[in-house]
Design a protein that fits this description.
Structural class: alpha/beta
Shape: globular
Strand content: 15-25%
Distance between the termini: 55 Å
Radius of gyration: 20 Å
Order of helices and strands: HHHHEEHEHEHEEEHEHEHEE
Number of strands: 11
C-alpha cells in the first residue's frame, strides 16, 4: 500500500463510522465510502438517499452479478442472488449440448440484460453464440444496452424490442437451444406485501404478472415449444409456491422432462423444462 493510501485509511474509517450512523449498516457504509473514494460530501449525499429508502444498488449505481459489474437503477429489476441460479442452470444445459453450429439463445424480458450478458461472458469463447435479448420496455432496453456495452458482450448479445416471443425474428422458430427468463411472477395482491425498498423502487411491470401471478409463466411455458430446437430447454425463475403449478403446465404442454431446482437458500426457484 502506498504511503498516501495508508495515510487516508484512518480518515476513511472515520467517515465510514459517520455514514454507518446514517444508514445503520457497517457493511453498506463501507461500500458507500469505497464508492466515493472517501469524499465526505458525496458519501453523505449517498447515505441520505439510502436513508430515504432507496435501494443500495441504485444509490451506488452498479452491482455485481456473477463475474460482471452491471449498471443498476429504476429502469429494471436489480439482479438478485436467486437469478444467479437461473444462469447456473442455463449454462449447465448449454454445456451438455452437442451443437454443430451456433448456439441460439433467447433471454425474454431481459430487463437490465444481466442474464444475457452473464451467459455471453461465461460460455466458452470458442463457441459461436448468438443471444437474442428481448425487452418490451424502452427504458429497460436502454439500460440493457448500457450493460452490453459495459460488459463488452455485444459480439454475442443482440438486443431486440418487443414483448416475449413477439420480439423474436421468424427464423428463430424451432432453432433455439435455450429460452431463459426471469419474468414477472407476483400476483397483484402481493404488491402491498412487498418490502418498501422493492415496492417503491423496482418497476411494477417487472414484478406483477396479473391476478394469479402465473400469467407470464403460462405464456412462456405454452409458447416455448414452437421456438425450441430438439433438445432445447426453457429455464424460468419462479416463486417457490408456484412449483406444482408450473410443473403441471410443463407436463400438459408436452415437455418430456421438467424439474424445479432449488436456489441457494433451498427454496424451489427455477423451472428447467426440456423439449
Amino acid at each position: 500500500m502506498s504511503g498516501s493510501a495508508s495515510s487516508r485509511a484512518p480518515e476513511r474509517r472515520l467517515l465510514a463510522r459517520e455514514v454507518e450512523k446514517l444508514v445503520g449498516s457497517a457493511r453498506e457504509a463501507r461500500w458507500i465510502v469505497e464508492e466515493v473514494g472517501g469524499d465526505e460530501v458525496r458519501a453523505t449525499a449517498l447515505a441520505l438517499r439510502r436513508m430515504a429508502g432507496e435501494p443500495l444498488q441504485h444509490v451506488l449505481g452498479h452491482w455485481g452479478f456473477r463475474r460482471l459489474d452491471v449498471v443498476t437503477d429504476g429502469r429494471a429489476l436489480v439482479p438478485r442472488p436467486e437469478t444467479e441460479t437461473v444462469v447456473d442452470l442455463a449454462l449447465a444445459h448449454l454445456r451438455r449440448l452437442r451443437v454443430a453450429g451456433a448456439l441460439w439463445i433467447a433471454d425474454l424480458g431481459t430487463g437490465s440484460g444481466a442474464i444475457a450478458c452473464a451467459l455471453a461472458d461465461e460460455l466458452d469463447p470458442r463457441l459461436d453464440v448468438h443471444i437474442l435479448a428481448a425487452e418490451a420496455s424502452a427504458d429497460a432496453l436502454a439500460l440493457a444496452r448500457e450493460n452490453v456495452e459495459r460488459t463488452k458482450t455485444g459480439g454475442r448479445v443482440e438486443l431486440v424490442k418487443g414483448d416475449w416471443f413477439e420480439a423474436l425474428p421468424p427464423e428463430a422458430g424451432g432453432r433455439l437451444d435455450l429460452i431463459v427468463s426471469n419474468p414477472p411472477y407476483l400476483a397483484e395482491a402481493e404488491l402491498a406485501m412487498l418490502d418498501a425498498v422493492v415496492r417503491d423502487h423496482d418497476p411494477h411491470r417487472a414484478l406483477i404478472a396479473g391476478p394469479s401471478g402465473l400469467e407470464c409463466l403460462e405464456h412462456l411455458i405454452t409458447g416455448a415449444p414452437e421456438w425450441l430446437a430438439r433438445g432445447g430447454a426453457l429455464v424460468l425463475e419462479i416463486a417457490p409456491h408456484q412449483r406444482e403449478a408450473v410443473m403441471d403446465l410443463a407436463a400438459r404442454t408436452g415437455f418430456r422432462m421438467a424439474r424445479v431446482h432449488d436456489d441457494l437458500a433451498g427454496r424451489p426457484r427455477v423451472l428447467v423444462a426440456e423439449r
